[in-house]
Design brief:
The protein is α/β, with parallel strands linked by helices. It folds into 2 domains: 268 residues, no CATH class; 111 residues, D-Maltodextrin-Binding Protein, domain 2 (3-Layer(aba) Sandwich), CATH 3.40.190. Helix content is 66%, strand content 8%. The strands form 2 sheets. The protein has a 4-stranded mixed beta sheet, with helices on both faces. A two-stranded antiparallel sheet has the order 5-6. α1 crosses α9 and α7 runs antiparallel to α13.
Amino acid sequence: MNQIKTVFGYTFRDAVRKKAFIISTIIIFILILVLTMIPRIINTFEDDNTDNYVGYTCYYIDEKELISGAKETLASSLPGIVIEEGSADKISEYNNLLQENKNLALITITEKDGLPFITITTGDFMSSVPSEMISETLTKVYVTNTLNKLGYNETAIETAQIELPYTMTFTGGMNFSGYTVGILLTMLIFFAIYYYGYGVSMSVATEKTSRVMETLVVSAKPSRILIGKCLGMGAVGLLQFSGIIAFSAICIKALIPEDFLIMGMPISFSAFTIKSALLVLLYFILGYSLYSVMNSVCGASVSKIEDLNSAMMPVMLISLISFYFGYVAAVSGSDGLLTKIAMLLPFSSPFIMPFKLLNGSVATVDIILSIVLLIIFIIIFAYISIRIYSASVLNYGKKQKLWALYKTKL
């Protein structure tokens, strides 16, 4: 046990001190911060608070009075903007002023197809004049005037101009937030498993080629070294993975407005319960354990660092194929045979099950069965990997076949 703790501590400290770990963590945190700030930025630009437009002046031209009382209504609806009566004879003069002053705008009302036609002119597209708000205000004034002429009372006019709020619901368990977070988690878990699995093989290969392994083998059994390294890199991955999840939760809570909608749907994390969070964490740990013991053999089987990528190719192909298999089965939204296979297959279940857990479309028996199969495969591959690792860790000659290394008497 002390041997495992020693190797674990050394591997963990060495990994967290590396620039790759620090820089990747900082970059991911910055990306999370930027992504969670986007909704607040959008809300800021869409905010109807007219104090944001203090200092703006709009020249209003409606010589035929196509929209009666529009100038006064604009002035009351947009108190931050000065509405001045303009003249059609001075349009060219106004256009010159617009090019010089970005806080000026020109509103011209003309007739087109029997209806008022609103033209809002600014110096360039960078102007933040609330054109949509102006258009909506003028439209409401025109509709009110027209309905008044037709004899409708104020109650009927207000009813005709009501804008009903809406949202979208679905009969299934999948929702927009669960779908999006599920996809992001699937990609994040794949990245973590691949990255830290590669870290295990790189650590083993580096120590073997630098002959540090010879010293380690004297003080610890190869099997203890393998377990310690896998646990050390796993702890680093778990630390970063947990930190990313925690930082994301803080940013979402602090930065995303509660009333923010995407395509009419509110952002909800109701599916992210304590149970689902613990299960997602468990699938990450088990998925990493499975791939890390496989990657450790790749690192021990090479005599030169340059050969590591080619040695890792079989494991890389398995992880990539399993990821895409799980990803496609997840986004398809079906519960057919292929999806069931992806959920139970130990190589792909860590990539699909977090998505299914967040979208409430997985039975308890499937969760238990997939976890049991994962644990069985981890034990089998750990046993095989320890035998191959122990036989190959001090082999500096010609690369031997894995089956030959497995049959080597230890």
